[in-house]
Structure formats: C-alpha cells, structure tokens
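#onboarding

Welcome to the new folks! Below is a worked example of what a typical request in this channel looks like: someone posts a single protein sequence, and someone else replies with the predicted structure as tokens. Don't worry about understanding the tokens yet, we'll cover that in week two.

Example request:
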Amino acid sequence: MTRRADSEYCSEHLNLLKKDIGNEKHNGRLDSKNGRVRIPCPLDPNHSVWEDQLKKHLTKCNKFKLSHINDNNIFYAKDMNSCPHLTENIDYRLYLDKVIEILQSYQKNDTFEIPLKQEANEEMVQSRVNTLTNQKHAIQQSSLIQNMINHDILYISPFGNTQDYIEFGCGKAEFSRYLNQVILLSTESKDARPITYHLIDRASNRMKFDTKIISDTQEITKQSKIKPRIDRIKIDIKDLKIDTQLNNDRTYVALSKHLCGVATDLTLRCIVNNPLLKQKLDGICIAMCCRHVCSANDYINPEHIKAILKEFDSELTYVQFFTCLTKICSWATNGRRSDMNATDIVEVTPTISMTIEERESLGLVARKIIDTGRLQWVKQNISEDSHLLRYVDKSISLENVALLVHST
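Example response:
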C-alpha cells in the first residue's frame, strides 16, 4: 500500500501502530477500586481481559470459538498438512551478512531463467479486460487461465466441461468466477453442465462472488436449470481433509491467484496428503506471493535449502538461512518511492551497502530459491510435467510467478 505524504506509515501499518498504542494504554491498566489488573488475552493479544476473569473469558473468547469452529466437521483434521514446529528462534539480523554473501555467489552461478509467458484469453479479453479502466487484475486472471489451457490443465471442450475446481485461499472467489465465465463461453450452451467450485479460505470474506458464479452461469447458458454448486469451507489449509468433499467420478484442478506465503506449501502438502485428490488431479495453477511470510517449519522442501548451504560450505542452520531468505524476498517487491533511482545506494546491513537495483535483484534470487525448491518437490511428488513461469510483466504485478502442473 502507498502512504500519504504527511504520514510515516501506509494505512495497513498505521492501523497496526494504532492498535499497539491502544494495547499499551489498555493492558496493565489498574482497577483501583477493586485492585484488579488488565492483561492481554493469551489467545489473542489484540484485546485484553481482567486478570481475575481470565479463566471464564477463555471459554467464551471469539478466538477460542473460531479455533474450534470445525471440530465436528468431517473435512477437519487438525494439522494434517502442517509439520512439527522447530524450536529455534533467531534474530535474523545476526546472519544477514553471511546470507547475502551466499546469495551473491549463488547468483553468479545461476543459469535457470523463469520464462515470461504473459498470455491473453480471448473470451476474457472480450468479456472483461476491454471493459475495465484498471485492467491489472483482469490481465493477471486472463494470463493464468490461458496458461492453464496451454499446459493442458483445463479441459475446455465444446461438448461440456468434465472438471471441478478447488480454489485455495479463495478470498471473494473472483478467480473462480472468471474461470467459470471462460469455461461457459467456450462451451455450447446445450452441453453445459453444473460445475462444483470448492472455495477454501480461513477468513470471513465480504462481497463474495459465490452468487455471481451462479447468476453468471444462468445468464450465459440461458438455462435456469444449470446451477453450479458452491462448496465454501472456512478453514485453515493446514487442517483441511479435502477428500471428504470430493467425488470419485470427477477430476479436479487446484488453483489460486496470489496464495500467500506458507499457504502455498500447505496447499501442496494437502494435495499429496489426500489420496483421492492426488489420484483425480488434472493439474495445479498457483500464483504465489508474499514469500516474506513463508515458514521454515512448513516449507515444503527444506532439503533444497540444506543442499545450498552444503554447496557453499556454510555453517548456517536451515532455520537461520531460510528466515533470512524470507526477509530478503521483500526487497524484490516493496517497490520504489517516486524519489528513488535504481543507482541510489542503500545500507542493507551495518557493513553492506548496495544500489537499489542490486537489492531488488538479490530479493529476486531469494524468491527464486524458495520457488525452485517447491518446483523440485512437486516434480518428485506430483508430476514431472511442472513449470515455473512469470505470467505477467513486473509492470502489471511485482508478484508475478506461477507454478503450473499438468498431472499425467
């Protein structure tokens, strides 16, 4: 997000700052009349409670209720797609210098290029892209959909679609909505069939497109009896047993546009941990983002990271190196202020300075290491027919790398 000229922070971090200031004032407050003290709730420190009422509060805290909302659902299996947590807590700043040296050496030897394949889906260009003033999201969706078609992930036939779709980290399900439109516009109306969209997100989203998917279908097919099924599940992907929702007679595509940080790793593990999904999988399309919130605990391929450390004879531990990688990744995507030039010198550690362009380049190297480890794991565990590509130019989005898998 951008920040106002008179503000030190963007709106996102300004809200966090206000919350911290509010907590400082609120937590520790004394009730002089009754001798009580206010403390942060251990389940959610964003609010506080009187210390002598803590036990009672924990049973009715909204955070407690949310954490147990799926306890009796068949699709809930706690931590099914997560890994046991490592215990090492580090101050990444102590290791940045050594990690930067490794990345600079890695960059010199790296010959792998992630190709730019910005495609345009004809149906989507006609029905959506050309109608918008701000086209960036539509261009991204159009390219992802056409790349899925080019990689034989989507089976769009004039005689009807034979797939169902699972959108991980779906948010409002905008990606599924426009995918649905493309499928219907590519299909003879008389041959259209109801499609099931499994929409997975842990948040409560406003302005959802669930009903739009249904109304779009009926408008395009001109058939009121054609009604897609919307199966929205509010759950953390780490706890998702998706096989319980699937049909053995269908095939599936797992997809997501901007699947944030660790959610990509959890999704890939979810696919492998659910035998029916893996067996009936036609393909995967995940546009990845936010490597700065990846987790060393849940990263899908720690052996890839350890191999790099071994290659450069480093004494850093996996957690130390990976944690620094996630910090450096943000250098590729935090953008430049209008008063910055590529050749401006910035201090990245107390002992290392570089140009803004060099810092961005190093961020891309860190991001590529995380993504190529994912690609390597997918090739070994899901399908050899797997690729990384830049689905739009960086002028459209700085987060522009997608993982595409055709499951054979």
